[in-house]
What does this fold into?
Amino acid sequence: MTDRQRSTTEKNPIATPDRRSRRHLAKRARIIDNAWSLARRDGLTGISLRDLADSVDLRQPSLYAYFESKLDLYDAMFEDGQRQLLDRCQAREPLPDPLDELVAVVEDLVRFSSEDVVRHQLLFQRTIPDFEPSAAAMEPARQFVDLMSERLRASRLEDPGDVDLFSAIVSGLAHQQVANDPGGDRWVLLARRVVEVLVADADQRSARPTKKPTTTRRVTK
It folds into this structure.
């Protein structure tokens, strides 16, 4: 009798809070995945909540158990995309030479943007009116910035102006790759030239002696 009762319990476990939480998170992850699919089909701003609910076997009002609003859905997608970028960069073992490593990171960034145009639009362009990512959604982006800062310092690019210039040029490479050669490597192949030019420029400026301001003496008669 005891064995039979144990067997019945094992076959019909009580739904604990942890189990419900795992189911909720799994469903939420599926909704996010399907939202990406709909965005690739219809555009980011064209995501239909009704179609999204249908794709995960829910009624549209039931989506609000997972996301408070459509902007909340975009926030979750933003965090998911930033997490993908961070995971990708952390998955690879850093190269021993700092310059080679920085080139590899730039190549990864440009390829990452080109592989999914919709994801690029959400992460790196202001495509959604009134959308501002939350602090939680920005957390993987902050971790990625920390990772990039380490790579830049190792290549002697730590002046704020150098970092801003690096960011602007790499963003330009990614935008050009997405707009003109999505899935290709035309602008990916420029990564080494860009990094070498920036490092050489920083080295040249750091070696250049600082000019002392000249003072003009007034000659009185």
In short: The two ends are 120 Å apart (CA to CA). The chain is about 65% helix and 0% strand.
